[in-house]
Amino acid sequence: MPKGQPLTVPDDNLTTRQRRNRPLLMVHTGDGKGKSTAAFGMALRGWSQGFDIGVFQFVKSAKWRVGEQTVLERLGALHDETGEGGPVQWHKMGSGWSWSRKAGSTEDHAGDAVAGWTEVKRRLAEQTHDLYVLDEFTYPINWGWVDVDDVVETLRGRPGHQHVVITGRRAHPELVEIADLVTEMTKVKHPMDVGQKGQRGIEW
Amino acid sequence: MPKGQPLTVPDDNLTTRQRRNRPLLMVHTGDGKGKSTAAFGMALRGWSQGFDIGVFQFVKSAKWRVGEQTVLERLGALHDETGEGGPVQWHKMGSGWSWSRKAGSTEDHAGDAVAGWTEVKRRLAEQTHDLYVLDEFTYPINWGWVDVDDVVETLRGRPGHQHVVITGRRAHPELVEIADLVTEMTKVKHPMDVGQKGQRGIEW
């Protein structure tokens, strides 16, 4: 995509620099592939700029995202060793969340989602990360496990300069309303439609 | 995205394993953000599986993709040092192409695009890479600089097990026709519409 010029200049009394540095809320939605992959691509880009990256995976899965997790955690370790790029934390639901190190498995998915969102809220208040990837976060919102008004209020009022990317199908209209950037990934053609199964290096 | 099951089982006499390992042609098109970012995210995933990655950037630009290039080349160097992941080559048009190391700048964009495609064809015939990212490759096709019939014939007939991802707006119908996976990224909302300019860590 060529570097574009704004279509209009807003009447907000901000300098270009202030506007340029505005923290963004981004939403990747739609039924097509690439929502999460593009979000992890952004994390990769942020890493190279020295951003502190926090990934929160709101879905239980063994295989999915393993490739991205491996690479981003490796980049985070590289930062710790050499100072290149930025630090990376990758948290996922599984047996609870990775920060809680709870023993055994929990089957309370709604409770896990709420615990995840509570932790993200705490970190936003403390300005822990520069970029938050809330992967598949549309689902616990749509299922009513996490209150959309709470999400909207928290994200609108987040302090400092924290970018947030939310992925998942059917993003809630209120989320779309407050987002700075919304991209819909539409499936035109998918190998699974003609019997192709997921494969190594492509789907995970 | 939860791991899906195929909707139908094709009548192609292939085992699931053969079908699973089929090389894919993927196209990311549409006017929205995320086409290239998702392609680089795939490269990241492929790297973690040990894929040999070749990126070919069919657009001249100083700033764009710098973050992705830095990270992927760093991962490629990591592979060379430690054996982790796979090797990475990143080639871009600028003063000619990075493999040709031509002195001075060329203003023959059409000629550069043809030279790029000729090199990609040569590598496909020699099975140089496991994953090719042909970034912004729809443009030289649509502008008639690269012959779409040649592209279609080459990609259909490529030997071995080579994945190809092509990005760019308005993918040619013949390209969509032969692709295994096509995703359209649609812009729902973009900060540039309301005067927001591109910023560090987000756009580059």
Indicate the structural class of chain A. Answer: alpha/beta
Q: How helix-rich are the residues of chain A, as a percent range?
A: 25-40%
Shape type of chain A: globular
Largest interface summary = A-B, 83 and 82 residues
Poorly predicted segments of chain A: none
Pfam families (chains A, B): CobA_CobO_BtuR
InterPro entries (chains A, B): CblAdoTrfase_CobA, P-loop_NTPase
Region (Disordered) (chains A, B): 1-20
Protein name (chains A, B): Cob(I)alamin adenosyltransferase
Describe the secondary structure blueprint for this structure:
The structure is a homodimer of 204-residue chains.
Chain A: H1 16-20, E1 25-29, H2 35-48, E2 53-57, H3 66-82, E3 88-94, E4 96-97, H4 109-126, E5 131-135, H5 138-142, H6 148-156, E6 163-167, H7 173-178, E7 181-189
Parallel strand pairs in A: 1-6, 1-7, 2-3, 2-5, 5-6
Antiparallel strand pairs in A: 3-4
Helix pairs in contact in A: 2-3
Protein name (chains A, B): Cob(I)alamin adenosyltransferase
InterPro entries (chains A, B): CblAdoTrfase_CobA, P-loop_NTPase
GO molecular function, one term (chains A, B): corrinoid adenosyltransferase activity
